[in-house]
Write a structure and sequence with these properties.
Largest interface: A-C, 22 and 25 residues
Strand content of chain B: 5-15%
Shape of chain B: elongated
Number of strands of chain A: 0
CATH topology of the largest domain in chain B: Arc Repressor Mutant, subunit A
Structural class of chain A: mainly alpha
Shape of chain A: globular
Radius of gyration of chain B: 17 Å
Helix content of chain A: over 70%
Chains: A mainly alpha (245), B mainly alpha (120), C alpha/beta (231)
Number of strands of chain B: 2
Order of helices and strands of chain A: HHHHHHHH
Structural class of chain B: mainly alpha
Oligomer: heterotrimer
Distance between the termini of chain B: 31 Å
CATH class of the largest domain in chain B: Mainly Alpha
């Protein structure tokens, strides 16, 4: 059942996400081609560049928002009447939403990678590329280790973030009105509480010792723990206090 | 054939009555197969259980016989037909009397009216 | 056997008591009308049985089991709103029901959709309200469930669609199943009902067979309902 649920959620999101990603890739192509052919002075370039920057910088937020909305609409609005009529345990529903959020985070990273490659291959000359390629091998292994750790941390944080939103909307659904507002307030509140409780998380250094991050299990444990707590709250509300009105 | 039901009488009784009329009027002859419960329910727009109940009652009164696999059949001979006709007629006459009495006619006046109607 | 049993079932929304100590026993093979004016607790009762709500007091069981993913496998629920993904078309919806419900009869669904003469590639959001309701009902009735919970299946559609919907119900429910139909349009459904439940301000004030009501009162269920609920 889990696989089927993920499949349907993926399909539902694909309808919204693929056009957005397609637009991002198209804008990347337009901008880089205009740079390649020295058309920077054209006013179209200004518009395209602006749109490109906006789309790139907001794409993560859009992906997260879309997956959260899938949770909200799929379980707590009209479609929830179907979801909760399925012979599926509540925890499976939640797991499906979490997996789906992670899948789309990966897709997002892949799309950003594609955009970067398109940009590099269009703008740069062949010689530049060769130089860059040589340079890659000269970089310290530490750099790649750090990159790996950053990605892992990013994934864990994203997981915690999604679970926080899920819990927030579950709590908000217990109220008759202003559900999005209540959910938003809860997310902000938890965020502030977290900054105060674990301030070290936000003063991470990018120094030569950065490879040591992996030796700081706390950085992983805290978001994982939070994800667990948020998921439990979500499960408890949806399983024991479900209130579809 | 359209089905119309009046509101105040249980539907299973109305179906029984309709079936009896159909038998007496010759629409169904002895040995004819009755529609399946679900088909009749669909056609009349009523609950299959209601049709079931009507059939059971018709069976109890000996007008219908069921064969386990092939369905229900009308089972009527001349004697039963006579009784059935009499029974239905009695109901109609009773209704006629009730209605005409409510108009203020007494038994004699009603009989007169019936005779006159025939002449006309 | 009893399909649906409620014992002292109550549900509060904040201070409002939507359902008040309801005791009910519904037997298999019956089509039961859950009748009452708006706000009498019909939808609440159905949602409790479908486990979209959790009781405040008392309990509800389906074939002896408290509502759970197990009972959901034998309960076919038609909510009182558009609950299907609007972007899906007929074909996709049938595939989805087949994916999730083991008791779903794909052929039956296709047969009924075929007789409706609708384009199976047309997404739900492009269909008229009446067609949408019919598609929802067809999917719901294409399951071989033990209990059908139909919340206002004929509200807001024209008389011809009503007729279609009622005929679809009586021709498709399983003989051993129970059908619970909630509605305030009593005259339209009473011919298909075995039993009627009157719900008033969250309480069951009557639960009788329709024949019994007609025989004892000499009135149709609709007339009797108007009398009972007269202001």
């Amino acid at each position: 059942m889990l696989g089927k649920l993920i499949k349907y959620d993926f399909k539902a999101l694909a309808k919204n996400m693929f056009p957005i990603y397609g637009l991002m890739i198209a804008l990347t192509l337009v901008c880089s081609l205009m740079i390649r052919f020295n058309l920077e002075k054209n006013f179209v370039f200004g518009i395209a560049m602006f749109a490109w920057i906006v789309s790139m910088s907001s794409s993560f937020a859009i992906t997260i928002w879309m997956t959260v909305m899938r949770f909200y609409h799929g379980l707590l609005k009209n479609e929830g009447y179907l979801s909760f009529a399925l012979p599926v345990k509540t925890e499976i529903h939640i797991l499906a939403k979490v997996f789906n959020a992670l899948i789309w985070a990966v897709v997002e990273v892949i799309v950003l990678g594609i955009c970067a490659l398109i940009f590099a291959f269009t703008v740069a000359t062949l010689r530049d590329l060769m130089e860059a390629f040589k340079y890659i091998f000269t970089i310290d292994l530490d750099f790649y280790l750090m990159l790996l750790q950053m990605s892992l941390l990013g994934a864990v944080e994203l997981l915690a973030g999604d679970c926080l939103f899920f819990a927030a909307f579950s709590i908000a659904h217990l109220f008759d009105r202003h559900q999005k507002l209540i959910a938003g307030a809860f997310v902000v509140l938890m965020f502030i509480i977290r900054i105060f409780l674990f301030p070290q998380r936000f003063s991470m250094e990018f120094g030569p010792q950065s490879q040591l991050i992996i030796l700081q299990p706390l950085l992983y444990i805290i978001p994982l723990l939070l994800a667990g707590v948020y998921s439990f709250v979500t499960w408890y509300i949806l399983d024991r206090r479900l209130n579809l009105q | 054939m359209k089905w119309k039901f009046s509101d105040d009488v249980p539907i299973y009784l109305q179906i029984i009555e309709r079936m009896k009329v159909d038998i007496v009027s010759g629409k169904y002859e002895s040995g004819d197969k009755l529609p399946a419960v679900r088909d009749l329910a669909m056609e009349a727009g009523v609950n299959p259980n209601t049709v079931q109940r009507s059939y059971a009652e018709l069976e109890r009164q000996g007008l219908v016989q069921s064969e386990r696999t092939s369905g229900r059949f009308v089972s009527i001979d001349d004697q039963k037909m006579k009784e059935l006709r009499k029974e239905l007629a009695k109901d109609y006459i009773e209704e006629l009397f009730v209605r005409l009495k409510s108009l203020g006619m007494d038994d004699l006046a009603i009989k007169d009216a019936v005779n006159n109607w025939e002449d006309e | 056997m009893e399909t649906l049993v409620c014992e002292g079932l109550s549900k509060d929304y904040g201070k409002l008591r939507a359902l008040d100590r309801v005791d009910l026993r519904l037997e298999e093979g019956k089509i039961v009308g859950l009748l009452g004016p708006n706000g009498s607790g019909k939808t609440t009762l159905i949602k409790l049985a479908a486990r979209l709500l959790v009781p405040s007091e008392g309990n509800v069981t389906i074939c002896g089991e408290v509502p759970s993913e197990k009972t959901k496998a034998i309960v076919s629920y038609l909510p009182d709103r558009n609950f299907l993904p609007e972007y899906m078309n007929g074909e996709e919806l049938v595939a989805m029901y087949k994916d999730f419900f083991a008791d779903f009869d794909e052929n039956r669904a296709y047969e009924m959709l075929g007789s409706l003469d609708i384009d199976l590639k047309m997404p739900l959001r492009k269909m008229s309200k009446g067609t949408k309701e019919k598609v929802q009902l067809i999917l719901t009735m294409s399951r071989k469930a033990k209990l059908y919970l139909l919340d206002e299946p004929i509200a807001g559609v024209d008389p011809a669609a009503r007729d279609y919907i009622l005929r679809t119900i009586i021709s498709n429910y399983d003989e051993n199943a129970t059908v619970l139909i909630s509605t305030h349009l009593i005259a339209d459904v009473e011919n298909v009902l075995d039993e009627a439940i009157f719900l008033k301000q969250g309480r069951v004030i009557l639960h009788k067979s329709v024949d019994e009501i007609k025989e004892s009162t000499g009135q149709s269920v609709d007339e009797y309902f108007r009398e009972v609920f007269a202001c």
